[in-house]
What we know:
alpha+beta, six-stranded antiparallel β-sheet, single chain, globular, Immunoglobulin-like
Amino acid sequence: MFEKIADSARDALFLNAGIYIEDNKVMTVENCGRIEEYNEIFIQLLSGGLIIRVWGTGLRACGYRTRGLVIRGRISRIEFDERKGRNNAEAADKDKR
């Protein structure tokens, strides 16, 4: 129940991840909650209900502003995973029906 309310609040308040990519050199992530790991070949961050992993070379996190982040460098791969617990409750609810 709480997960459904939290999802609705995120949608209403525009707290979901907004991602914009320019070629393979610039990536802007809106609503970036936290940078979990950062070096010149890998960046992992939390945004909304997602874990976002970025691989490349010469990666730099710049322009960190209120709930936003700009990543510059040569981006070779981007991976998205849902944060644990976010949709697991929804899947369990569907299985019960």
